[in-house]
Amino acid sequence: MGILVDGKWLDDEKDRYHGKGGQFKRPDSPIRHWVTPDGAAGPSGDGGFKAEPGRYHLYVAVNCPWAHRTIIFRKLKKLENVISISFARPTRGPEGWIFENGSEANKEHLFGKTHLHEVYTASHPDYTGRVMVPMLWDKKQNCMVNNESSEIIRMLNTAFNEFTNDTTDYYPEELRSEIDAINNVVYKNINNGVYKTGYARSQEAYEENVIPLFETLDSLEERLESQRYLVGDSLTEADWRLFPTLIRFDAAYVGAFKCNVRQIKEYTNLSGYTRELYQVPGIASTVNIQAYKAGYYHKNKDRNPFGIVPVGPDIGFDVPHGRGA
Fold it and tell me: Do both 143 and 245 map to the same domain?
């Protein structure tokens, strides 16, 4: 993984993201301003980012599960004509996320940059840290707003309601404590758990993470036996935070990250639940299994030195989910 240090791109050969014992440590997202309906400051960062149509631009990569959250919320909330978007290539290069400006699918629309780190330094010339997707950009102030996916989806959930006819609230006040509780478990053991498993650099670090990963999947399988969604009978933010990991699991994490104790298709409730969410109108268009495999199985001297991408698995997300109307 490369990194920006004082605005300069460095190939990161240091053990910067691993602790003692080979444990993978995910760095925090440092840019944490909020878009709000009136431009007032949010829970972190500075104010001055008022929700306006056409003002904001989202940088994503289709294979990144953290970015997938924001793609889903942009789709669910019908904000495609309110917030523009650029998709980086599914596979990263020596300088991180790449754009292909001769291709409409992977074009960097605002500046014509080749690398995402060049967009970061257009906002913060002395930026130090990882260059991550998703990232939300303010075209009016010409700067980054936020690069923390969990916060971006909260903005998309409510801040732009004035400009969409879908005002569904996926983080309702009466369910927030329960949503936050399940989010914490899912993030620690599943969303980030697959990465802590796949990026482990010792057998001990691997087993310390793969075991709670599957214990948590087992507990969610049991949870979904008695209720339709993670928090009762309504789709919430919690479901859409889990979905990007589940939809990638059998195609990518089982093989590339050695998360092979069980596949999601072996879980009756979790597999039906995954298909149900996939079949929510608009969501299938946010899913690209081939891109996920290309991203996770790209040529890598440690995990996949020959860059061979598996043909399978054959997953039928369009099969009836069996979870009611």
Answer: no
